[in-house]
Design goal:
CATH topology: Jelly Rolls
Helix content: 10-25%
Radius of gyration: 16 Å
Structural class: alpha+beta
Bound molecules: 2-oxoglutaric acid, manganese (II) ion
Largest sheet: 6 strands, antiparallel
CATH superfamily: Alpha-ketoglutarate-dependent dioxygenase AlkB-like
Shape: globular
Number of strands: 12
Low-confidence stretches: none
Strand order of the largest sheet: 1-10-7-12-5-2
CATH architecture: Sandwich
CATH class: Mainly Beta
Mean pLDDT: 95
Number of domains: 1
Order of helices and strands: EHEEEHEEEEEEEE
Strand content: 25-35%
Length: about 200
């Protein structure tokens, strides 16, 4: 299970050292104070186990009306700006001249998971998805662009950054489970994922 061999899929192990993880955690705490985490409901009426919020011009939300990007938090306020510390990770790793306009913030508490899916609500798939892990380790599963194909899994740890570009941009992926309490970064346990995307 050690290495994922999918073109366009890059795992930057320990990209953020402990000091950088701690300072990023403070940044995320600031964002969550402005834009509280929510337990969203899928169009099918199921409550998601991962709690979410966002920063940037758009946040991804779901409710009975469907999946979509919205310029407002459901509480009626615009999302906070994406902080420089987060944009820097994108700029260092992608080298593109476009910055992301959405930073999705996912919080996995004990037992939370995210089913296999594609990120395909964006207008264009020409830019990568950059995904930062903080806190407890998560079992990240990656498949192909077509549904139902072979998948491979890796444990992503605090400070790891995953980039999905090219052929991997539309690959199926998800998080089967986390090892709750495996990291001490978050005093009460849990995993934070930041997913950066160009939406429009
Ligand atoms: O938590 C992760 O590592 C993946 C999150 C994800 O795929 C998403 O938010 O679309
Ligand atoms: Mn995704």
């Amino acid at each position: 299970m050690a290495h994922l061999r999918v073109a366009g899929f890059d795992v930057h192990k320990s990209y953020l050292d402990l000091a950088a993880q701690k300072s990023l955690l403070d940044v995320v705490r600031g964002l969550v104070t402005k834009a509280p985490l929510m337990a969203l409901t899928t169009p099918g009426g199921k409550k998601m186990s991962v709690r979410m919020t966002a920063a940037g011009r758009y946040g991804w939300i779901t409710d009975q009306q469907g999946y979509r990007y919205d310029p407002m938090h459901p509480n009626g306020t615009p999302w906070p700006e994406i902080p420089e510390d987060i944009l820097r990770i994108w700029n260092e790793l992608t080298g593109y001249d476009r910055e992301p306009d959405c930073c999705l913030i996912n919080f996995y508490g004990e037992g939370a998971r995210m089913g296999l899916h594609q990120d395909k609500d964006e207008k264009s798939f020409d830019w990568p998805v950059v995904s930062v892990s903080l806190g407890d380790e998560g079992l990240f599963r990656m498949g192909g662009v077509a549904r139902g194909g072979k998948t491979q899994s890796i444990w992503v740890q605090s400070g790891d950054v995953v980039v999905m570009d090219g052929a991997a941009r539309l690959a199926h992926h998800g998080v089967d489970r986390i090892r709750f309490g495996s990291s001490t970064l978050l005093p009460k346990g849990g995993r934070i994922n930041l997913t950066l995307r160009v939406v429009s």
